[in-house]
């Protein structure tokens, strides 16, 4: 490992970076919230979902009269919404039509076999195809998503537009259907004056790229009209590269019903939620007063290096207009949603320490992001684990910004966090595949990989993942 401070394979030179253009363009706003287009199931027999996804160049129109070149799945960004059921066999024909770039499709949060999970070790060359095939096990219902994972290109392919929702539905859903299931898929966008997305700057690489506009289902600040007394189920996805979304529906009552890996055991009333990059949450929101309700951001300081921390407070992401006309009365939310078995006791305890290094090197300002002092190496195994064995993972953040920790192929249970020597147990059981580890904090979780193969774990600020904050666990039978 040559120069510590070099993030893996590549160094970056501050002086050579172009300045970030100012965000002066007026995006279209205030249109009705659209439903994401669905990926049609081409299979004719029950229990099977088969469809094609092509990643390639496309155009979007965020600003009247100005086209933005993007990357898209089947021509649309966010990608088409995939909906399948527990127990289904899923087969996706993937066609990489991105000129000159490798890609993959990673099934974020889903229990798919390692060789079907779109790992950086399994790239699909430009112009090549492959099939991803996997079964959705019982009790795997949840709000998952998909995005590329090619080595060194993930961050860019995602901010250019490649990401979509994968909903796994249960055979019977305890949440009343009258709550109408509404996806809110958050991405963020930066546009240059020409309408194109500028390349990432040094500040973007350090902090993760934060766009100038937060989009919901690809729209800026859309609107939704509901009747008085409506209860809505919202599934929120943070698909931004690096933005932390601390969110509130103002004075409309919010109840958390689910996390990354599906429903909680029981609803939990909250005033706000914090969604780190890649996290999901499911909410029921009650619109009990006529008038305007806004889903808006609150300030969250996740640590920042270099100039220009974006002021994220007070962005309106969605405006809900609640009419005077009452909605059809909806049944109450059941007090028990599901059972989540405890992860049990761990035979193995492991520690992962997140650090950053910034400093002057031969080529100017250099930086790196490390786990246990090592930058990612595709050809190195960092951890060897045994399939079916529960492990306790301790994630220690010694860096000066928050890093959301993610692991592939499984859902874990957070048991506690520790800060300044004070240990706080997790308030309830939940399935998670991504958890924020705030600066100075330690998070402990119980995790079990059911299947053999290579699995990635990494910071889900995608620029940090690219600059080295990723490792490989080899799960053996
Ligand atoms: Cu969504 Cu390896 O990540
Ligand atoms: Cu993942
Ligand atoms: Cu990070």
UniProtKB/TrEMBL annotation:
<dbReference type="InterPro" id="IPR008972">
    <property type="entry name" value="Cupredoxin"/>
</dbReference>
<dbReference type="InterPro" id="IPR045087">
    <property type="entry name" value="Cu-oxidase_fam"/>
</dbReference>
<protein>
    <submittedName>
        <fullName>Copper oxidase</fullName>
    </submittedName>
</protein>
<feature type="domain" description="Plastocyanin-like">
    <location>
        <begin position="208"/>
        <end position="289"/>
    </location>
</feature>
<keyword id="KW-0560">Oxidoreductase</keyword>
<feature type="domain" description="Plastocyanin-like">
    <location>
        <begin position="60"/>
        <end position="172"/>
    </location>
</feature>
<dbReference type="InterPro" id="IPR011706">
    <property type="entry name" value="Cu-oxidase_C"/>
</dbReference>
<dbReference type="InterPro" id="IPR002355">
    <property type="entry name" value="Cu_oxidase_Cu_BS"/>
</dbReference>
<dbReference type="InterPro" id="IPR001117">
    <property type="entry name" value="Cu-oxidase_2nd"/>
</dbReference>
<dbReference type="Pfam" id="PF07731">
    <property type="entry name" value="Cu-oxidase_2"/>
</dbReference>
<keyword id="KW-0732">Signal</keyword>
<feature type="domain" description="Plastocyanin-like">
    <location>
        <begin position="361"/>
        <end position="476"/>
    </location>
</feature>
<dbReference type="Pfam" id="PF07732">
    <property type="entry name" value="Cu-oxidase_3"/>
</dbReference>
<dbReference type="Pfam" id="PF00394">
    <property type="entry name" value="Cu-oxidase"/>
</dbReference>
<dbReference type="InterPro" id="IPR011707">
    <property type="entry name" value="Cu-oxidase-like_N"/>
</dbReference>
<keyword id="KW-0479">Metal-binding</keyword>
<dbReference type="GO" id="GO:0016491">
    <property type="term" value="F:oxidoreductase activity"/>
</dbReference>
<dbReference type="GO" id="GO:0005507">
    <property type="term" value="F:copper ion binding"/>
</dbReference>
């Amino acid at each position: 490992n040559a120069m510590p401070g070099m993030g893996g394979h590549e160094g970056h030179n501050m002086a050579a970076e172009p300045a970030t253009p100012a965000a002066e363009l007026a995006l279209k706003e205030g249109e009705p919230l659209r439903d994401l287009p669905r990926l049609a199931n081409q299979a004719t027999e029950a229990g099977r979902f088969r469809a094609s996804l092509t990643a390639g160049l496309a155009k979007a129109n965020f600003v009247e009269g100005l086209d933005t070149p993007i990357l898209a799945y089947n021509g649309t960004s966010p990608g088409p919404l995939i909906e399948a059921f527990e127990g289904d066999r899923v087969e996706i024909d993937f066609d990489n039509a991105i000129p000159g770039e490798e890609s993959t499709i990673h099934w974020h949060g889903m229990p798919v076999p390692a060789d079907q999970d779109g790992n950086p070790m399994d790239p699909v060359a430009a112009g090549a195809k492959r099939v991803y095939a996997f079964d959705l096990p019982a009790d795997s219902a949840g709000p998952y998503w998909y995005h590329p994972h090619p080595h060194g290109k993930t961050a860019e392919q995602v901010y250019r537009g490649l990401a979509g929702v994968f909903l796994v539905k249960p055979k019977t859903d305890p949440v009343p259907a009258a709550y109408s299931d509404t996806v809110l898929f958050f991405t963020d966008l930066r546009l240059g004056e020409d309408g194109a997305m500028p390349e990432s700057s040094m500040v973007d690489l350090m902090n993760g790229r934060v766009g100038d506009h937060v989009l919901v289902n690809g729209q800026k600040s859309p609107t939704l009209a509901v009747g008085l007394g409506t209860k809505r189920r919202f599934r929120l996805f943070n698909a931004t590269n690096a933005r932390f979304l601390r969110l509130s529906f103002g004075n409309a009552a919010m109840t958390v019903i689910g996390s990354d890996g599906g429903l909680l055991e029981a609803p939990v009333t909250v005033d706000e939620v914090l969604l780190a990059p890649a996290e999901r949450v499911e909410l029921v929101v009650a619109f009990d007063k006529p008038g305007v309700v806004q889903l808006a951001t609150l300030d969250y300081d996740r640590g920042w290096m270099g100039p220009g921390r974006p002021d994220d407070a007070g962005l309106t992401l969605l405006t809900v207009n609640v009419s005077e006309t009452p909605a059809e009365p909806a049944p109450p939310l059941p007090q028990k949603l599901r059972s989540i078995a405890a992860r049990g006791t761990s035979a193995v305890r492991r520690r992962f320490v997140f650090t950053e290094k910034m400093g002057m090197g031969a080529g100017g300002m250099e930086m790196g992001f490390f786990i246990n002092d090592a930058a990612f190496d595709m050809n190195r195994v960092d951890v060897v684990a045994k399939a079916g064995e529960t492990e306790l993972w301790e994630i220690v953040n010694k860096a000066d910004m928050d890093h959301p920790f993610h692991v592939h192929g499984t859902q874990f249970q957070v048991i506690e966090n520790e800060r300044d020597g004070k240990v706080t147990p997790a308030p309830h059981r939940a399935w998670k595949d991504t958890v924020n580890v705030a600066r100075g904090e330690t998070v402990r979780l119980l995790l079990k990989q059911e299947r053999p193969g290579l699995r990635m774990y990494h910071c889900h600020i995608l620029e940090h993942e690219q600059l080295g904050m990723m490792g490989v666990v080899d799960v053996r039978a």
